[in-house]
Design a protein that fits this description.
CATH topology: Rossmann fold
Protein name: Methyltransferase type 11 domain-containing protein
Strand order of the largest sheet: 5-4-3-6-7-9-8
InterPro entries: Methyltransf_11, SAM-dependent_MTases_sf
Bound molecules: S-adenosylmethionine
Helix content: 25-40%
GO molecular function, one term: S-adenosylmethionine-dependent methyltransferase activity
Number of domains: 1
CATH class: Alpha Beta
Largest sheet: 7 strands, mixed
Oligomer: single chain
Pfam families: Methyltransf_11
């Protein structure tokens, strides 16, 4: 195994294909422990994602699923840089924006716009609030990163008042479909990504409905929002394997096909033949 292999944790080669070692935890599970350049990249990615039209479409579905906003006490658990928390506050809610990462809470608070948002540090799986503290809670693209998602959901339910709503949003990474690129490259990147990130809850989105039902919520609905991207420039902050600015150390693309992969993406974009699809699920239940 060469230097690069040791640094990046490659298990070896199989049928000529690089096999990565699985990551124990995702970077978003441990934002305070990632190196500063990676933290800046990930915080920048959260902000860029908030401006992506497809992510905005997912958020509109989640917004509608939350029901009335004005005058409500709401929790955004795993708030990232806090865009949604501030939008909810602007719409008249009293919002707590909570995140596990101190650096991320600081980044969210730096962007504070004076709306009624309180930014706090905390773990969604061990919330420091009394029972029934909120009229509604939301949790977007967080459960895929936590060790015990059902424990986190139980906490979200516990802090919601009877009659209040719990809304969870998560990605189904296994739903990614691609067209316009060579099939062997797509297969190599898919195998590498799922191998490297296999400890991650890659299929979290599709499990949300079942988890909310098992958590005892009623009137559970689950809506698959199919996001699609027809140019490489639209997709990079949502699907990192299409983003050439994500550094090799992030290990989302196999190093042996990296150049060929990004050249193929460029060519597909130039020919207007690029297509990538991803399903993100919005699920909601009533306490
Ligand atoms: C992919 S980001 C999503 C952020 C935001 N919800 C959004 O949609 O932009 C995941 C966030 O979950 C946070 N997170 C991860 N584990 C957490 C935990 N156990 N409790 C609270 N937040 C957590 C991370 O620090 C990060 O900000």
């Amino acid at each position: 195994m060469g230097d690069h292999a040791q640094r990046s944790g490659f298990a070896g080669l199989e049928n000529g294909r690089v096999i990565p070692e699985p990551l124990a935890r995702t970077p978003f599970a441990q934002l305070d422990d990632v190196p500063q350049p990676m933290l800046a990249l990930l915080i920048g990615a959260l902000e860029s994602m908030a401006t992506n039209p497809e992510i905005q479409r997912v958020r509109r579905v989640a917004w509608d699923a939350m029901g009335p906003i004005s005058g409500r006490r709401l929790l955004d658990a795993g708030c990232g840089t806090g865009e949604v928390a501030r939008e909810l506050a602007e719409a008249g809610a009293d919002v707590v924006a909570l995140d596990h990462s101190t650096a991320t809470v600081a980044a969210a608070a730096d962007r504070h716009d004076g709306s009624p948002v309180r930014y706090i540090n905390g773990d969604v799986a061990a919330l420091d609030f009394p029972d029934a503290s909120f009229d509604g809670v939301r949790c977007e693209r967080v459960l895929q990163h936590v060790d015990d998602p059902d424990r986190a959901i139980a906490e979200l339910v516990r802090v919601t008042r009877p009659g209040g709503r719990v809304c969870v949003v998560d990605t189904d990474w296994e739903s990614v479909a691609v067209d316009g690129l060579p099939a062997d490259l797509i297969d190599a990147v898919r195998a590498y990504f799922t191998g490297r990130w296999q400890q991650h809850h890659l299929g979290m989105g599709r499990t949300l409905r079942r988890r909310l039902v098992r958590a005892g919520l009623r009137d559970v609905i689950a809506i698959p929002v199919v996001c699609y991207f027809t140019h490489p420039s639209q997709v990079g902050h949502v699907l990192p394997m299409f983003n050439p600015t994500v550094p090799p150390e992030a290990d989302v693309v196999p190093p042996d096909v990296r150049d060929a992969w990004f050249n193929a993406i460029d060519h597909a974009g130039d020919r207007d033949e690029f297509l990538a699809v991803l399903t993100i699920w919005v699920a909601r239940g009533c306490r």
